Amino acid sequence: KNLPSLCTSKLPAGMCLFPQNEVKQIQTPLFILNAAYDSWQVRNILVPGGSDPRWRSCKHDIKQCSAKQLKILQGFRDHFLEAIEAQGDSPTRGLFINSCFAHCQSEIQEIWFAPGSPVLGDKVNTLALFSCLNFVCIQVF
């Protein structure tokens, strides 16, 4: 009833709840700031609690992941990026996607400015992000 008719006329209503289908209906400028995968996504979406005990260590510390688990994480990331790319280019949309495993890392200043924090060109995350806010920058790292 409250879902966009542009979506429900093309897809079953339940599919219109997924971001990749909803984003296409947004008319206002949109800037996506998201991790391609992070600890919350891994613990709650990819491998929810109790689903596979072999993931217990990996879910809490990416350094504990096996080669097979890292390959699965990479596939999860690739699937996310494919969904983002399927949205197409737009002068009113931009994005800043990284692969920082810390959830809510955009809210924690210590993570953005920490020694060893990822850089984009010669800029730390925060400065690179603000450079992107004019919808020109599309970076994935």
Automatic annotation (TrEMBL):
Record GO terms (molecular function): pectin acetylesterase activity
The enzyme's E.C. designation: 3.1.1.-
GO BP term (any one): cell wall organization
Function description: Hydrolyzes acetyl esters in homogalacturonan regions of pectin. In type I primary cell wall, galacturonic acid residues of pectin can be acetylated at the O-2 and O-3 positions. Decreasing the degree of acetylation of pectin gels in vitro alters their physical properties.
Membrane-spanning ranges: none
Pfam family, one: PAE
One GO cellular component term: plant-type cell wall
Subcellular location: Secreted, Cell wall
Keyword tRNA processing among record annotations: no
PANTHER family in the cross-refs: NOTUM-RELATED, PECTIN ACETYLESTERASE 8
Keyword terms, alphabetized: Cell wall, Cell wall biogenesis/degradation, Hydrolase, Secreted
InterPro entries found in the cross-reference section: PAE/NOTUM (IPR004963)
Protein name per its UniProtKB record: Pectin acetylesterase
Family: Belongs to the pectinacetylesterase family.
